[in-house]
């Protein structure tokens, strides 16, 4: 957004115009929600406060009852101009009395540190005692690039100005922002970060057969239940043929699942010689024994697309970037936060920046799971946060790994799998078990055809 603004200013766009448009967008939304109730506008010292003064003026001109609570601090430039154009009631933040509607324009993208105890106390008191709260651009005290909480209050609505920022989709932002509305202020924005939308999928071609649909080999491990969940998800994720390679019971799992007896890494290497394989999944229920490690080596040395999940990620550890960057075929890693930390030490910035850096180092596509899943590859990052909090249950990661296998075997993407997984969870409703999720993949897929 900062880059886009700069380009727009360089092309003759004025700061005053940008702020007028931002303030007008906020006033428009606030008027819809206020329906005649008294408004308290919180205005900080920077441009977020500038937006607030514009919105206060426009709302007041439109007949709303508006008071401004101003935070001390040096206001300069356009924000100072907008402050001067406001002629209504103004009190200090300390003196402010809560009103039914609060609009928070203390800080936006410029928040630089934890809110002081005083500011945090007044802000939370005012928001908690309002009937409705709306944040301008971001809830004040939410770090823009990481979504880290520096003392923000939880808002009902946040009006994102110009574009979504990472904090609207990540971390504490998922709770603090409330419902996020996007206000177009006429500044074109483009960049390498997107939010995940419903994918467009197509039915198999008329002449499709089981191998052209995508063959997925799932490596069975010490906990065969997890591997079977993964294999079943691959079957329902659109794969044409799913083979479970291991020593578990050949009777377990659906009849459509092909069991191949694979005792050890040598036998796995033989199985991997099949050129029809579209993707291999390793990790769900794998275990961390030497035998497991040897199987992982066999997969990494194969020429197939590979999905690496669970125990396989922990086995790779800090060797991940080195080993994967040597692969020619696509590798997709599906770590949760703990596994990510065991593979990629430290790293600067928020979840998006750290995941993109790891993808660049390893050459892999990384699905960094959580309530704010970040999918990164060399082209950029996609954030997915509209799944379901009921997904936080054992086995759902195995289902996702199988889905990723099915989609990439069919020439699709990890993002498609993440969307289908999240949508299946929404359709499954509350308190489902990972097994139940699988029945909802087909209805989710139907929405994409
Ligand atoms: N660019 C544009 O033209 C447009 C921008 N737009 C709007 O501008 C917003 C960004 O504005 P911004 O960059 O001025 O930063 P902003 O969020 O107002 O805060 C900076 C001020 O806060 C202060 N401060 C920071 N942290 C603090 C703390 N913890 N406790 C106390 N003080 C703290 C900081 O002071 P300092 O750190 O220098 O001491 C500085 O004074 C953006 O979110 C959008 O709403 C739209 O109008 C569209 C056009
Ligand atoms: K704000």
From TrEMBL:
Catalytic reaction annotation: (6S)-NADPHX + ADP = AMP + phosphate + NADPH + H(+); (6R)-NADHX = (6S)-NADHX; (6R)-NADPHX = (6S)-NADPHX; (6S)-NADHX + ADP = AMP + phosphate + NADH + H(+)
Binding-site residues for AMP, renumbered to this chain: 369-373, 397
Annotated EC: 4.2.1.136
Required cofactor(s): Mg(2+); K(+)
Job description of the protein: Bifunctional enzyme that catalyzes the epimerization of the S- and R-forms of NAD(P)HX and the dehydration of the S-form of NAD(P)HX at the expense of ADP, which is converted to AMP. This allows the repair of both epimers of NAD(P)HX, a damaged form of NAD(P)H that is a result of enzymatic or heat-dependent hydration. Catalyzes the dehydration of the S-form of NAD(P)HX at the expense of ADP, which is converted to AMP. Together with NAD(P)HX epimerase, which catalyzes the epimerization of the S- and R-forms, the enzyme allows the repair of both epimers of NAD(P)HX, a damaged form of NAD(P)H that is a result of enzymatic or heat-dependent hydration.
Record HAMAP family: NADHX_dehydratase
Protein name listed in UniProt: ADP-dependent (S)-NAD(P)H-hydrate dehydratase
Organism: Stakelama pacifica
């Amino acid at each position: 957004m900062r880059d886009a603004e700069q380009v727009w200013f360089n092309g003759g766009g004025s700061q005053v115009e940008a702020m007028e448009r931002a303030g007008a967008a906020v006033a428009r939304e606030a008027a819809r929600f206020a329906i005649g109730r008294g408004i308290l506008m919180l205005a900080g010292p920077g441009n977020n406060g500038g937006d607030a003064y514009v919105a206060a003026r426009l709302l007041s001109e439109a007949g709303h009852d508006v008071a401004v609570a101003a935070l001390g601090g040096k206001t300069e430039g356009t924000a100072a101009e907008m402050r001067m154009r406001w002629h209504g009631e103004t009190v200090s933040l300390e003196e402010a009395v809560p009103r039914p509607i609060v609009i928070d324009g203390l800080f936006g993208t410029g928040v630089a540190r934890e809110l002081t105890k005083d500011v945090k106390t007044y802000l939370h008191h005012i928001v908690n005692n309002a009937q409705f709260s709306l944040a301008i651009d971001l809830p004040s005290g939410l770090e823009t690039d990481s979504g880290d909480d520096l003392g923000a209050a939880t808002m009902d609505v946040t009006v994102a100005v110009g574009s979504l920022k990472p904090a609207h989709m990540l971390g504490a932002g998922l709770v603090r922002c409330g419902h996020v509305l996007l206000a177009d202020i006429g500044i074109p924005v483009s960049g390498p970060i997107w939010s995940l939308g419903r994918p467009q999928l197509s039915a198999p071609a008329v002449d499709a057969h089981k191998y052209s649909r995508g063959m997925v080999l799932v490596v069975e491990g010490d906990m065969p239940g997890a591997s079977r969940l993964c294999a079943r998800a691959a079957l329902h994720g659109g794969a044409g043929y799913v083979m479970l390679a291991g020593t578990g019971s050949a009777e377990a799992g659906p009849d459509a699942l092909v069991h191949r007896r694979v005792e050890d890494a040598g036998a796995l290497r033989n199985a991997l010689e099949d050129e029809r394989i579209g993707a291999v999944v390793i990790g769900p229920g794998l275990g961390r024994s030497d035998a497991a490690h040897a199987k992982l080596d066999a997969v990494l040395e194969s020429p197939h697309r590979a999905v690496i999940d669970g125990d396989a990620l922990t086995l790779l550890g800090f060797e991940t970037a080195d080993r994967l960057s040597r692969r020619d075929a696509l590798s997709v890693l599906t770590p949760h936060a703990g596994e990510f930390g065991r593979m990629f030490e430290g790293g600067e910035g928020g979840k998006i920046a750290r995941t993109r850096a790891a993808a660049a180092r390893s050459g892999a596509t990384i699905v960094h799971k959580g309530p704010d899943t970040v999918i990164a590859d060399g082209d950029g990052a996609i954030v997915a946060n509209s799944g379901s909090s009921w997904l936080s249950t054992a086995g759902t990661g195995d289902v996702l790994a199988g889905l990723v296998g099915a989609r990439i075997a069919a020439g699709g993407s990890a993002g498609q799998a993440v969307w289908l997984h999240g949508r299946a969870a929404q359709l499954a409703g509350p308190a489902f078990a990972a097994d139940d999720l699988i029945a909802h993949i087909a209805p989710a897929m139907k929405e994409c055809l």
